[in-house]
Amino acid sequence: MSALIDFHLGTAPDDHGRTFDAILAHDDEWLEYTHNFIQWLFPLTSISGANPTAPTLDSAQITEFRNNPALRKQLLRSFDRMLGFYGLTRTPDSINKAPNWEQRKSLWFTHPSHNHLRITRILKSLNTLAMEHEARMLYDILISLKQTEPDCGIPGTAFTHWAAAVTP
Question: How high is the pLDDT of residue 1?
Answer without folding.
Answer: 73
